[in-house]
Write a structure and sequence with these properties.
The chain is α/β, with parallel strands linked by helices and 304 residues long. Helices cover 36% and strands 15% of the residues. The strands form two sheets. It has a five-stranded parallel β-sheet, covered by helices on one side. α5 packs across α6. The longest helix is centred in the C-terminal third of the chain and has 19 residues. The protein starts with 11 loop residues before the first helix and ends in a 5-residue tail after the last helix. The structure holds phosphoric acid mono(formamide)ester. Phosphoric acid mono(formamide)ester binds next to α2.
């Protein structure tokens, strides 16, 4: 039985197969419409979500399966003090696979250790968000035609943004990637990541102003300042509008640069950018369904 805790749980070759499958599902959805008939996905979300939970539910439904679950801890027995370990033991008797989001780092890993069914980490605190990373990689591979040979700018909350941490870890396995980290001083990417990049000899640059590096980028990955991870409201208010990508800044970018964002967006991308063909964040959210369909089939060993 296989779980997904980190994007590194799959080798680059396995990821290629997963993305080929996701692209085939996109092109031939009918072929997969009954591959999960009789199977059940449990979505256990202890933290709010729109895309991750609903794209998992959409994915399982499009494969012919069914979904059970809860959308917040307050409506589950966690509110009565039940542990994640006990919950997953019980759910193992109700479902065939489980997607779990939890505010505590490592909680899905604790669940996986006690689980009788595959567990997918759907985001754990500020740690990892592997299915978002699979979505990001599929989007880049599908729209750029490659995973490698580019300069990627990651902008915004690089300290708390789990999507950023997962994506950096996944991208360092591809050739000729250069990172540009764009953040205020207080939200810099953690030292353990920059230390790891130095150790591996992977080039990176840390800057504060987006305008200064815009013209270098092949990809710009915008992120939201994570209100829920701040200890103090004052710091959040001071930093929340530090970056606003607008049409003026897009004029500085390459003609084929892509703008990605895991969403939800707050103010960091002006809505006027949505109509720019380089803005692919809504397409990216749709790729999230195809990649989760491919992931469910892979973990349940149901690939036709
Ligand atoms: N990208 C993402 O994880 O969105 P949700 O929080 O809405 O699931």
């Amino acid at each position: 039985m296989r779980h997904l805790m980190s994007p590194l749980d799959f080798t680059p070759e396995e990821l290629d197969r997963l993305f080929d499958l996701a692209n085939d599902i996109e092109s031939h959805p009918g072929k997969y419409a009954h591959t999960c008939d009789g199977r059940i996905l449990a979505t256990c979300f202890y933290e709010p979500s729109t895309r991750t939970r609903l794209s998992f539910e959409s994915a399982m439904t499009r494969l012919g399966g069914r979904v059970i679950g809860f959308a917040d801890a307050a409506s589950s027995s966690a509110s009565k003090g039940e542990s994640v370990s006990d919950t997953i033991r019980v759910i193992s008797g109700y479902a065939d696979i489980c997607a779990m989001r939890h505010p505590k780092e490592g909680a899905p890993m604790v669940a996986a250790e006690k689980s009788g069914i595959p567990v997918i980490n759907a985001g754990d605190g500020g740690h990892q968000h592997p299915t978002q990373t699979l979505t990001d990689l599929l989007t880049i591979r599908s729209l750029k035609g490659r995973l490698g040979d580019f300069t990627i700018g990651l902008c915004g909350d690089l300290k708390f943004g789990r999507t950023v941490h997962s994506l950096i870890n996944a991208l360092i396995r591809y050739d000729n990637i250069r990172f540009v980290f764009i953040s205020p001083e207080e939200l810099r990417v953690p030292d353990y990541i920059t230390d790891m990049l130095k150790e591996k000899g992977i080039p990176f640059q840390e800057v504060i102003r987006l305008e200064n590096v815009m013209s270098q980028l092949d990809l710009l990955y915008m992120t939201r300042v994570q209100k829920e991870r701040f200890f103090n409201e004052e710091d959040y208010v001071r930093l929340k509008d530090f970056y606003i990508l607008n049409a003026g800044k897009m004029l500085l970018a390459k003609k084929d640069m892509l703008v990605l964002h895991p969403l939800p967006r707050v103010n960091e991308i002006s809505v006027e950018v949505d109509s720019d063909p380089r803005a692919v964040y809504f397409k990216q959210a749709k790729y999230g369904v195809y990649v989760r369909m491919a992931l469910i089939l892979t973990l349940l060993e149901l690939i036709p």
